[in-house]
Design brief:
- The protein is mainly alpha-helical.
- It has 2 domains: about 5-190 and about 300-330, Rossmann fold (3-Layer(aba) Sandwich); about 210-295, Tyrosyl-Transfer RNA Synthetase (Orthogonal Bundle).
- About 55% of the residues lie in helices and about 5% in strands.
- It is built from 14 helices and 5 strands.
- The protein has helices spanning about 20-35, 45-50, 60-70, 90-100, 105, 110-120, 125-130, 130-140, 155-170, 215-220, 240-250, 255-265, 270-295, 300-330, and strands at about 5-10, 40-45, 80-85, 145, 180.
- Strands 1-2-3 form a 3-stranded parallel beta sheet. A two-stranded parallel ribbon has the order 4-5.
- Helix 1 (about 20-35) links the parallel strand 1 (about 5-10) and strand 2 (about 40-45).
- The longest helix has 30 residues, at about 300-330.
- The chain is globular and about 75 Å long.
- The structure holds adenosine-5'-diphosphate (ADP).
- Adenosine-5'-diphosphate binds next to helix 1.
Length: about 325
Amino acid sequence: MAATKQIVMSGIRPTGFLHLGNYFGAIRNYVKMQEQFNCYFMVADLHSLTTHPDTKELRENVERVLAENIACGLDPDKVALYCQSHVHETAELYLYLNMLAYKGELEKTATFKDKVRLNPENVNAGLLTYPVLQTADILLHRAKYVPVGKDQEQHLEMARTFAHRFNHRYCETFPEPVAYNNNEDLVKVPSLDGSGKMSKSENQMATLYLADEDDVIRKKVMKAKTDNGPTEMNSAKPDYIENIFGLMKLVCAADVIAKYESDFNNCTIRYGDLKKQLGEDMVHFIAPIREKINSILPDKKYLQQVMEQGAAKANKSAGETMQLVREAMGLKYF
Ligand code: ADP
């Protein structure tokens, strides 16, 4: 008998164009995992409402994220690729889990503090309970593995805490989910200006999007922060230079990286040449994905069909889990 496949769940918010961080932190693993695991990947449209309450462009953004995931190699026939708002049980589980989450621990979350700093005029309760909603998304499918970037590590720790609390208070219902990156360290793709990470909505000149045109990619890479180069042999790299080498590791050949490492150590490095090379390798990597996105995006009928197919798979799994949850909580009176 075939062994039951382990369950995987992850999501991306439709708050803008996907970028290299989303690809290397998340989608690359989705594509690898779709072969051996039972995968649920969603467009997290409800999460986007915590920071983007205006829904005028939501549909367009949801379609874009779907097209971008598919262009990166995700196969809607192999996985459940769905929209969070199509799974209504999410709201029910979110409600139950909110009773197990404490205000103090939610306020301490790093992403909450960041978002409060960026948007002090919209500190809504949904923002505070973002990790609870994320936990509901994961537990709804009783997922064990969650392919995410390093920025999500703390949220996953909270998801384990909430799952554990539920199991302890009621009865063993959920696995405690773990962040997953193919048994390697979780990835953080740094922004090109040497500060923070690439991200959909902040810092657009310092983020490489999967939809960027070749010239835009070259221009952004050439603007990456560098300096005059080291003056002492084998010195430590400043953070912003470390970041550039980190980006090279994602797309450049090993011998190219080795050459620039050695130039750095000998104090002969020419950052102009390095960035030219990195720009070309980025173009080489991104262009085929961009072209694929552009070919999928106009086919609204296909995208609609993908959404429906995904919703059916996700609803089935969510329905089964919620039966167990209601039973565990004693919420079944007839
Ligand atoms: P964003 O921060 O760009 O809005 P999301 O919050 O929608 O992205 O995250 C989607 C996925 O992409 C998550 O798994 C997250 O960990 C990953 N991710 C986002 N930015 C980066 C980054 N710069 N490096 C690595 N992974 C990232």
